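Renewal narrative, Specific Aim 1. Our central claim is that a sequence can be written position by position from structural information alone. The example that follows is taken directly from our test logs and has not been curated for this report. It begins with the structure tokens describing the chain, in the order in which they were read.
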């Protein structure tokens, strides 16, 4: 029986509500325990049943995703996903959010997001080799935006640079929909031996539980609960729930952890992320239906007077929990001492199926483990089909008279402008393996694998305006664009991780966005053979009832078996042929141009024909690997006009284009139809390229040739490349000045 401290507060409805539990959920706790919980027990149920840890509103829908494939070693359910990349090697990767903390405390929120996602990867036995991110901020004229951008970018750079892992790619968007709730999604990719992957499962009865890493403090208490609630005017008061990171300890922890893994002394291992010591211990015990017994007086702490409640709920960073093979404690401790890492044996596994906490000679928690993990709520939230919009054709907008002005506007708007100011603050070249990264003209980052000719291609993608306009088509497009960006480098797409950012799931219209977006994503993953191997759901991203645009970000990973055969979009030579691959239709709905040129945010987004997407991409990839394509760029934001401008700016070589007949100039240049690529081809390879595309009935058109110093569209416009670059590079530095 639990011993309750005299200082225990009485259980009241208000106290239960403060812990984010509903009356119905509290009733289940009473039923499972057969009594009232004490404060520590309530706190443990609170974090384990939070949206952030239990996925109680989303996990029945996540079951739709395909998670298996010929290269999948580990799908969802562990700290990160694992894929086979040949030669006995594996890539380990995951994406996760740190949205709420980054809004409250941008530097530490973003920094600890990077630290946390790296721990998810090296917990699996992988050395982190690349970081990526997907950032969404509010309107540039909102009073908080500049400070948030500055703090988040500094936090990402400060942590990743200090640990020595390159930040190789990402995307950054601005929209008023994020004014009260920014998004900071971090991704990490690591490299491991395929036969030496470590898991949270595998613990045996009677094994020692060891803690190593930083000491536990009071930072981050209720972090998981805070991340499972929407903001209001009092969000600033949640600052103490934000964790504080130390990248130099993280670097030591990586080395110590990998050295310990080489000793074969670990049965199971888990990083202390959301919900800290609670979730890491419960998850390892729960996977094997074990009990767990902890001595709270043995937990290394850095503050005086910490209670079991605080120790169990703290989200202090740079901490790990492992279950060792009996008798290996001294060996593990010696390794940690070598790396100047705190180490303590804090408990053991049992056959009771219960979590028992001892403190100051008393039992302060005695609860069954199963309800914490298996018995967490699993809601089928009511949802409604989001309203759909009609197609917006070029006949419904004013014809553009000044195309030069329109092009410069698209290249200098907040979403279209260069983010050089931002990514120059990240170390992109540490480890010396970044072949293509932020700042190089490539649709995906490319990171080589040491002592091989292989490389991983990595992309981060989402077009929230599509998902808002039509969650199903937008969900399909998110996956298709990640697949297309990897393909455009010549890589074979293997798998994705996701970060599903939505508003309050208790509102049927928001739940409708989530359901239909995941329906679309699941269909795209199936057709493209692009399974989901890891991910994160971030709900309640709203302030005072105003939800963010639905933003299911995707991190894609692909393999280049020979990185010398990769292409970007900056290698263009005079006389090269410009070929447009794919079909263009007259639909300007939800496009960047509709918003930036015409000031509208309506209309149906482009349809995604997944069979066509796959057929087109497979041929393009084959042509790249055969050496028939010099440069390749997928068409996305801004359509053909922006893609051509980006190629011209990246290469310093002009393009002279003639638009195909049958479409208005607005549709031809600005539609954002999917499954389209712009190819730069040596004329000697043109016949082979056209033959391969036509053999698969894939639309393709010769648009013109390369040369000179202008981007020219016959009878439409001519712009000097230096003017394009000037407009493209100017916005971000001016905004942040």
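The sequence written for that structure reads:
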């Amino acid at each position: 029986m639990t011993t309750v401290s005299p200082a225990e507060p009485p259980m009241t409805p208000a106290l239960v509500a403060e812990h984010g539990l509903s009356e119905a959920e509290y009733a289940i706790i009473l039923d499972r325990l057969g009594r009232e919980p004490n404060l520590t027990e309530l706190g443990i149920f609170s974090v384990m049943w939070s949206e952030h840890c239990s996925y109680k509103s989303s996990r029945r829908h996540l079951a739709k995703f395909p998670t298996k494939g010929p290269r999948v070693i580990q799908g969802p359910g562990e700290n990160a996903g694992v894929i086979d990349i040949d030669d006995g090697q594996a890539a380990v990767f995951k994406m996760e959010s740190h949205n709420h903390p980054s809004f409250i405390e941008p530097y530490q929120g973003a920094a600890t997001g990077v630290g946390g996602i790296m721990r998810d990867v090296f917990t699996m036995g992988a050395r982190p080799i690349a970081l990526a991110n997907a950032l969404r901020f509010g309107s540039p004229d909102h009073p908080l935006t500049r400070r948030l951008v500055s703090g988040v970018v500094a936090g990402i750079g400060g942590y990743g640079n200090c640990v020595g892992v390159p930040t190789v790619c990402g995307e950054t968007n601005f929209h008023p929909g994020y004014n009260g709730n920014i998004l900071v999604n971090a991704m990490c990719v690591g490299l491991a031996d395929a036969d030496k992957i470590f898991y949270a499962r595998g613990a045996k009865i009677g094994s020692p539980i060891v803690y190593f890493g930083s000491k536990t403090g009071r930072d981050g208490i209720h972090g998981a609960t805070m991340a499972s609630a929407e903001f209001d005017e009092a969000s600033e008061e949640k600052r103490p729930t934000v964790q504080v990171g130390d990248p130099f300890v993280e670097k030591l922890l990586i080395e110590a952890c990998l050295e310990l893994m080489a000793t074969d002394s670990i049965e199971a291992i888990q990083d202390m992320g959301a919900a800290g010591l609670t979730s890491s211990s419960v998850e390892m015990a729960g996977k094997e239906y074990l009990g767990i017994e902890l001595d709270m007086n043995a937990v290394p702490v850095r503050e005086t007077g910490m209670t079991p409640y605080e120790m169990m709920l703290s989200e202090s960073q740079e901490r790990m929990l492992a279950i060792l093979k009996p008798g290996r404690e001294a060996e593990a401790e010696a390794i940690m001492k070598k790396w100047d890492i705190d180490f303590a044996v804090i408990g053991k596994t049992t056959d009771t199926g219960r979590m028992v906490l001892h403190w100051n000679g008393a039992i302060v928690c005695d609860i069954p483990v199963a309800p914490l993990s298996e018995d967490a709520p699993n809601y089928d939230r009511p949802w409604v089909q989001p309203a759909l919009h009609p197609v917006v054709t070029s006949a419904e907008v004013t014809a553009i008279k000044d195309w030069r002005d329109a092009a410069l506007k698209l290249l200098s708007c907040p979403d279209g402008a260069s983010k050089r100011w931002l990514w120059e603050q990240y170390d992109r070249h540490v480890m010396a393996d970044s072949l293509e990264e932020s700042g190089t003209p490539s649709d995906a980052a490319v990171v080589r694998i040491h002592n091989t000719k292989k490389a991983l291609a990595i992309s981060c993608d989402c077009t929230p305006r599509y998902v808002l306009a039509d969650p199903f088509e937008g969900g399909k497009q998110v996956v298709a664009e990640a697949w297309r960006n990897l393909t455009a480098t010549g890589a074979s797409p293997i798998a994705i991780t996701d970060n599903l950012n939505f508003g309050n799931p208790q509102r049927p219209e928001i739940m409708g966005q989530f359901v239909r977006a995941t329906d679309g994503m699941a269909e795209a993953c199936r057709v493209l053979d692009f399974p989901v191997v890891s991910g994160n759901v971030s709900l309640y991203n709203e302030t005072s009832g105003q939800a963010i645009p639905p933003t299911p970000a995707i991190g894609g990973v692909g393999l280049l078996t020979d990185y010398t055969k990769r292409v970007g979009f900056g290698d263009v030579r005079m006389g090269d042929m410009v070929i447009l691959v794919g079909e263009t239709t007259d639909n300007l709905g939800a496009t960047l141009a509709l918003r930036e040129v015409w000031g509208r945010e309506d209309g149906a987004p482009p349809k995604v024909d997944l069979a066509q997407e796959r057929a087109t991409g497979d041929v393009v990839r084959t042509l790249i690997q055969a050496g028939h394509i010099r440069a390749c760029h997928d068409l996305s934001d801004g359509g053909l006009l922006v893609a051509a401008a980006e190629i011209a700016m990246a290469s310093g070589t002009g393009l002279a284009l003639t638009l195909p007949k049958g479409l208005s100039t607005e549709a031809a240049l600005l539609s954002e139809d999917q499954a389209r690529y712009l190819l730069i081809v040596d004329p000697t390879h043109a016949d082979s390229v056209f033959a391969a595309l036509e053999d698969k009935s894939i639309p393709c058109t010769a648009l013109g040739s390369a040369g000179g110093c202008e981007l020219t569209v016959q009878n439409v416009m001519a712009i000097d490349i230096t003017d394009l670059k000037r407009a493209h590079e100017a916005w971000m530095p001016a905004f942040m000045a």
